[in-house]
Amino acid sequence: METSNENVIAQIWRYPVKSLRGELLSAAAVDTRGLRGDRLWAVRDSADGKLGSGKNSRRFRRFPGPTLLSLSSRYRVDPAAEPDAVEPPLVVDADGREYPVSDGSADRFFQQQTGIPTLSVAREAEVNHFDEEPVSLIGTATLEWVEKELPGIATDARRFRPNLVVHTSEPFEEEAWVGRTVHIGSGDDAVELTFTHVLMRCVMTTMEQADLPPALGMLKMLGQREEQPLRLAVVGAATRTGIVRIGDPVVVD
């Protein structure tokens, strides 16, 4: 197994509503679907079934009005404490006003902001809300590499919407973990993950969010990577469920 003092969990992110900004956590339950409650909800147009996003594609649509990344979402009750019944989250606007999904306030907010009466914040059903695999991870050294490649552009983990950020010593170190077993934690509730590939990035990485200005050169810069053009961060799923916590050791078979 490989480990070092560098390889510990630095940040944990969960995104209750897909394509909105998420919440920074000190710990999170991880099950076979991913971090419990992550991207369990999405802004959906019942007229065509498309989900709200910063991009337009067969499955996603960029709705008019404020960008989804100008909004955030959070759970009032942590799903780790209520594993059998994840309560609907709150949508939070740029001014800090909260719109509960549970009473339809979030639906009405999106309908008013976009002019689309068929929008709602819908819970995942037959088709999951993940673009690819349910758990994503990036290393701190990789984020530092991005900062050096795009000087003057504020860069942190929020650009890439990972679930887990790990302290690493070398850029792209986490890409060598693909196909191997990654152990997080050391107790009875330790988690095991298997990562399948390096994630293809999209226009979401370039968009303004909260205090992060646009990063218009991001995709061009990532496209110049020789071995993994346009790819950054690894994705996979849990093969052993449990709890991840800030400071947990990360060990790779």
Explain what the structure shows:
It is a single chain. This protein has an eight-stranded mixed sheet with strand order 2-1-13-12-16-15-14-18. The model has no long low-confidence stretch (mean pLDDT 93). The protein is globular and about 50 Å long. The chain is mainly β. The chain is built from three helices and 18 strands. The protein folds into two domains: 9-15 and 131-252, PK beta-barrel domain-like (M1 Pyruvate Kinase, Domain 3), CATH 2.40.33; 40-123, no CATH class. The protein has helices at 105-114, 140-149, 218-222; strands spanning 9-14, 23-25, 27-31, 34-35, 41-45, 51-52, 60-61, 72-74, 90-92, 98-100, 119-123, 135-139, 164-166, 181-184, 191-200, 231-240, 242-245, 250-252.
List the topology elements.
Elements: E1 9-14, E2 23-25, E3 27-31, E4 34-35, E5 41-45, E6 51-52, E7 60-61, E8 72-74, E9 90-92, E10 98-100, H1 105-114, E11 119-123, E12 135-139, H2 140-149, E13 164-166, E14 181-184, E15 191-200, H3 218-222, E16 231-240, E17 242-245, E18 250-252
